[in-house]
Request: fold
Amino acid sequence: MGLRALESRVLVLAPWVFGLSVLGHLAMVAFQTKMTMVDLMVYRNASPELFTGGLYEWRLKEFSDQFALPFTYPPFSAIVFVPLSWVPWGVARWFWQLLSLACLWYLTKKSLSLAGSNDPRRALLWTGLFIWVEPVRTTLNYGQINLVLAALLVGTLVSATAWKQGAGVGIAAGLKLTPAISGLYFLVTRQYKAAVWSVVAFAGTVGLAWAVSPRLSAEYWFHLLGDATRVGPVGSAINQSLRGALSRTLGHDIQTGPVFLAAVAAAAVLTGFALHAAVKARDVLAMIVTVQLLGLLVSPISWSHHWVWAVPALMWSAYRARHVLATVTAFAWVAAIGSYLISFLLNAQPSIWIIPRPWYYSALGWVYPAVGVLTLVTIAVVLRRRSPEPVVEHRVDLLGQ
Reply:
């Protein structure tokens, strides 16, 4: 039975699945003591240090016995998060949880729309299910920003207005550098005005932060940028980038040496094939997914909760592609993000800092990169000979004509 056939049997229950999932999650927010939201705590508690000059020396020592968490984002992020420090912690955590849930629903709905489905029940069903998959679950537990950024990017990338497209990418990159990979979407679709606007918006975030704190801005851009070890343990199972997977396989941090560069080159070539096919087929969702998967693969650090892009990847595989390889890819995503394999591997490793491990744990630690690569292969193969099938909901002329 295919994924869509299975789904059709439960679609009538979609409002119940959504409602019960949201209520279950909110009950965990209210009563689950282990739901510490440590990353939100970092965003909130560290941001005022922007005005004291101690932003990048500050550490959160609570709930992090192996690694006192630093503030690792650009200074502009601290400006954005300062208002959260003005309200009680309880207000901040509830606000962030409700915002993240809204962004998850929007990300799911928009992905389905780009895949050609506008059934509101389907968006409710999948949102309710996605609340419990590992990347989303850990994003919610940690109070991470991933769902907010993904929703911002998907919503603005498909806008019909160049400045809105560019502003979305530029602001997202100003908050957390990794969304800058989204600019590749503008280049392959020849939307050069949007690309220029993204640069302008990003420069605006840098300029604003520089005006607030020139010293911290200089410290971040000229000294801290690129130091992956400051962000966290590169070889831990939670790092699902190519660098993390290869380091665990070889038993040491490969850093940015020849093995890493070869892996990046291979990922770039595969991405090129996938993007060529997606652009030729005018498949907007496939283009967005391809670009974001490239960013996750080649980034030195891609924590498992960064992989919320599995949501649009799964929606494309299940509803847009209509090919046996896409069905296999969809089930692979369900298995990868629904199994909580990363959580198991985290419990199995003796320390987040110890890279060597038994070969079978190293192999299992490839789960997200492997399915990410499979998705790129699927996009390249499925869309290679497909005629252009523009989705009616998307109004942007993809070739800028």
The beta strands are 59-60, 69-70. The first strand starts at residue 59 and ends at 60. The radius of gyration is 20 Å.
